[in-house]
Every structure is written in structure tokens, then in C-alpha cells.
Amino acid sequence: xxxxxxxxxxxxxxxxxxxxxxxxxxxxxxxxxxxxxxxxxxxxxxxxxxxxxxxxxxxxxxxxxxxxxxxxxxxxxxxxxxxxxxxxxxxxxxxxxxxxxxxxxxxxxxxxxxxxxxxxxxxxxxxxxxxxxxxxxxxxxxxxxxxxxxxxxxxxxxxxxxxxxxxxxxxxxxxxxxxxxxxxxxxxxxxxxxxxxxxxxxxxxxxxxxxxxxxxxxxxxxxxxxxxxxxxxxxxxxxxxxxxxxxxxxxxxxxxxx
Length: 258
Prior knowledge:
Deoxyribonuclease I, Chain A; six-stranded mixed beta sheet; metal ion binding
């Protein structure tokens, strides 16, 4: 089974890019972030025509998450993170698909730091860590996938010395991510590419994509039952080079059958 995460940066404005990628890459399940659309404007019909059913948690102009599937029904189990410090923001959706429980998330950016936005990011991360602990304790095959807005190590950021004051690279945020992994989650992309410089995001400015001045902020974390089935993990980097594309590239993993 091939499962992907993709921050589309506007599901309606980037719909041609999304549909082109779905056709070319053919993931079985997709977690989307930054829909930037209310529930009533999610392009369910176009996505259904591409062969995918969907559940989504939208918000006008900002945020928004969704899960797509072409391999069976999506059984939504949760909409919104427990104890979210600002539940009006649509940042978390959870569903069982084809025997896997998937938590799709869009973690707050947190800039500027310090300030209320950074405080919110810390609080949201703490709520995620608490919920993730319960998911792991269930013993189920679980995945947390999405835009975490954190570069875990210096290997995950171009010129890390330039990011020391940024909320995506703050020591508190990197420590929170490490605490999450320490629960028992496997960072799928880094597991199979332990020493590689590999990015998932390139800014629109300063020719960042061409220079490969990127960040790795989109992650797929696997519980032990899923980590044992991991056979591949890649970034569809070329999608970032398409016309009118997102500033993120899709990231996907392949799981062996049980």
C-alpha cells in the first residue's frame, strides 16, 4: 500500500496539479494539508472522478486537512485534536483506511518567535504528543502524517545557521519532535535515507527550488506494526517544479502486505 502526504497550499487553486500528481503517482491513500477552503468548497466531485473518496475538515482561507482513498472506505474516527488550544483551526483529522489508522495533521507554523503564535505551536505540539501516546498504546497499526512545520536536525535544513531564530527550527520544537519519536514512532523517510540531504519544501523566493535550498518539514511517522512493513519512502520532488505548484512536494511510503 502506498500512502502519501502532501501540503497542497490551496486545494482549489492547485487542483490541476493535485489531479495530475494523483494520476502519475497513483497513491492508494493521501493525506492533504492547507486546503484553504471551507467544507462546502472542497472539490469532492473532481477528486471522485479521479478515483478517490475523501473526508475533509476545512476552514475558510486557512489550514484544512483531508484524507483520500482509492483502496476502500474511509472510516473517520476523529475531527480535531483532543485538547486543541484553538479548536476553531482545522488542523487534524483521523480515519481508518484499509487496516491502517491515519492521523493527518497540519502543525502550526509558530512564527514570529517569541510570541502568541509560537506559544500556540508549543501547546498544539504538547496536545499532539499526548494523543500520540494513546494511539501507540492501542497497539494498532497507526500513522501520523502531514506538515509538522519542524526540521528535526541540521541535515533537514539548507544552511541551518540561518534558521536559528525561526519557529520551525527552534530548540523547543526540535525537542518536542524528538520526544514524539521517543514514544516509539519511526520517521519513515529518515529511516530509509539516514544520511541523505532530502527536502520536502522549497520557498517560492530566491530561486530556492533550483538551488535546492530546501527544508524537510513533511513527515510520516509509523507505529511499530507499520514500521515493520516499511519497504520504501520517497519524495516526488519533480512535482515542486511543475507550473503553479505548491511550495511542498508530495512524500510517500510503501508498506508491504501484512
